[in-house]
Write a structure and sequence with these properties.
Largest sheet: 14 strands, antiparallel, barrel
Distance between the termini: 62 Å
Structural class: mainly beta
Shape: elongated
Strand content: over 45%
Number of strands: 23
Number of domains: 1
CATH class: Mainly Beta
Radius of gyration: 23 Å
CATH superfamily: Outer membrane protein transport protein (OMPP1/FadL/TodX)
Strand order of the largest sheet: 1-4-5-7-8-10-11-14-15-19-20-21-22-23
CATH architecture: Beta Barrel
Oligomer: single chain
Order of helices and strands: HHHEEEEEEEEEEEEEEEEEEEEEEHE
């Protein structure tokens, strides 16, 4: 039973990854360098091509066609101390580089605009030190995902516009490594697979009743990320136990939850812009995670069964964001922001691949127009994930003993750079 539980948890880590390095749960929220510098706001603003992600309804209000690209680098410092004491464990150094590309086109004085966005809402790497207490749940994981979103937006009036985009999970891959607990030795397992193409909708409404005030609301629907026929690779399994590990493929489905976003933009002066956003992520769709194991297309055994199911029981969670931009000169823009991100992970459900808790976030950024049409943006985000302790008693109470008791503490630094060209 113990072997089945630890394999189940490892498979769960394949889909979850460590994308939560940039948002609660396993969600990434790095819209663009301009938005990051302002705390991630933008639902109630129409400032840049990243409106395709933040609020497609605002894209029609952009005054110029344009292209912008950006990349961030996440540096996570995670420390774990087992509940029983002992040495502190830390992550080995890893760097992840989520990116974004946005482009929109339309008649210069027209009401219609079309665009395309490419971004990485999931993509991380995590590697624990050898010999750590949770090695039978997780030692290393890599997750990659790329979304493509064609988008259209229309200005119904000079104050009101709408828009929608087709979200396409175009490419995704996962790789996991972990130790396997055997009666008199340790084996290893690697799970590797690609996600199937998935589809969702990103839609929004933008309203600007005056030059100083704007509001917006957007909705990004759930996408089910499916892995079918992923590889199960086992090593150092003792011959006597090999019949209990016959499977060489696995199938699983992970819901990527829907989000509802509301934003307000205020422009007190021509130089100052302020944004306030609230994001509700519907994590309650994530109740459990089931894995079906097969060999040659038929159910096959892993541990003591042909499938396993693990509790998640996430809860819906809010994020509040506040940020601003000040035009120091015609060419130079200075940005600051902050956010508070509530964790969807309940007590007793914390896992090594998402050692999550509420997050305090601070950001800063700068933009510079090199020419009338060409500019560069830089951003920096710091996240402090509040310390979280999970006890053996809590795991027993929730029936979640397929994870590790102990204390997690995580800080994340995310610098980024972006380029934009308007025409």
């Amino acid at each position: 039973m113990m072997m089945a539980k630890t394999l189940l948890f490892a498979a769960g880590a394949v889909l979850l990854g460590t994308s939560g390095a940039t948002a609660g749960g396993f969600q990434v929220y790095l819209p663009s360098q301009q938005s990051i510098g302002m705390g991630g706001v933008g639902v109630g603003l129409s400032m840049e091509q990243a409106a395709q992600f933040l609020n497609p309804g605002a894209m029609a209000m952009l005054r110029q066609n344009g292209v912008q690209v950006g990349v961030s680098a996440t540096f996570a410092r995670l420390a774990f101390r087992p509940i029983s004491g002992g040495p502190q464990r830390e992550l080995e150094n890893t760097t992840v580089t989520p990116f974004n590309v946005y482009a929109s086109f339309g008649p210069k004085d027209g009401k219609f605009r079309a665009g395309v966005a490419v971004y990485t809402p999931y993509g991380s790497t995590l590697k624990y030190q050898p010999g750590w207490e949770g090695r039978f749940a997780l030692t290393e994981i890599t997750l990659r995902a790329v979304y493509v979103q064609p988008t259209v937006s229309y200005a119904i009036t000079d104050q009101l516009s709408v828009g929608a985009g087709l979200m396409i999970l175009a490419s995704g891959s996962v790789n996991l490594q972990r130790a396997v607990a055997l009666p008199s030795a340790e084996g290893s397992i690697e799970l590797d697979g690609k996600t199937k193409t998935g589809f969702g909708v990103n839609a929004g409404i933008f309203f600007k009743p005056s030059d100083k005030l704007s509001v917006g609301i957007s909705y990004r629907s759930k996408i089910d990320a499916k892995v079918e026929g992923g590889d199960v690779i086992l090593a150092d399994i003792t011959p006597a136990l090999q019949p209990n590990f016959a499977a060489d493929r696995f199938d699983a489905t992970l819901p990527l939850p829907a989000t509802v976003n509301i934003g307000i933009g205020v422009t007190p002066t021509e130089k100052l812009t302020i944004g306030l956003d609230a994001n509700l992520t519907q994590w309650s769709a994530y109740r459990s995670l089931r894995f079906d194991f097969t060999k040659d297309g038929q159910p096959a055994q892993v541990g003591r069964g042909t499938f396993s199911e693990s509790k998640r029981s996430y809860q819906d969670a809010l994020t509040f964001r506040l940020g601003g931009q000040y035009k120091a000169t015609d060419e130079l823009a200075l940005r600051l922001g902050a956010a508070y991100d509530f964790s969807p992970v309940k007590t007793g459900y914390v896992t090594p691949e998402t050692p999550d808790n509420d997050r305090v976030i601070a950001t800063a950024g700068v933009g510079y127009d090199i020419t009338e049409n060409f500019g560069v943006d830089a951003s920096f985000m710091f996240q402090a994930i509040l310390k979280r302790t999970q006890t053996e008693a809590q795991l027993l109470d929730n029936g979640t003993t397929d994870r590790v008791a102990g204390t997690y503490r995580t800080n994340i630094s995310i610098p980024g750079i972006g380029l934009r060209y308007n025409f």
